[in-house]
Amino acid sequence: MQVIARQEYKITSVHPLGGGRLLLRFVNRTWVTVDFADLIAKGGVFSRLADDDYLAAVRIMEGGYFLEWPDELDIGADSLWRRGKPVAEEDVAALRNPPPSRVA
């Protein structure tokens, strides 16, 4: 297991992707996606993350060590780091700006 300094757990940017997913960048320049589907499925306070408008209300707090939503729902950067799936730098633009969906 890779040991990571607390400094590297700092979030520098967050981009809601919808569908209960976020794209995060950490201070060590690593991009990850975080999927909250398992937490949403359990119900409780995290079920609100299924609502794309609520998910989009996310803010970076405490200098990058937490993400927070309205009603004081928060999650620490270290937890998000562990949940995250790495994203290659060349794939970030496509995640942030998906092509428009086509109507059949």
Task: Provide a brief overview of the structure.
The chain has 104 residues and is α+β, with helices and mostly antiparallel strands. 24% of the residues lie in helices and 32% in strands.
Q: Would you identify the regions where 5 or more consecutive residues have pLDDT less than 50?
A: none
Relevant CATH superfamily: NE0471-like N-terminal domain
Q: Radius of gyration, rounded?
A: 14 Å
CATH topology: NE0471 N-terminal domain-like
Q: How many β-strand stretches?
A: 7
Level-2 CATH architecture: 2-Layer Sandwich
How does the helix and strand content classify structurally? alpha+beta
Helical fraction equals: 10-25%
Q: How would you characterize the largest beta sheet?
A: 4 strands, antiparallel
* Side-by-side strand order of the widest sheet: 1-2-3-7
Strand content: 25-35%
- Whole-Å distance between the termini? 47 Å
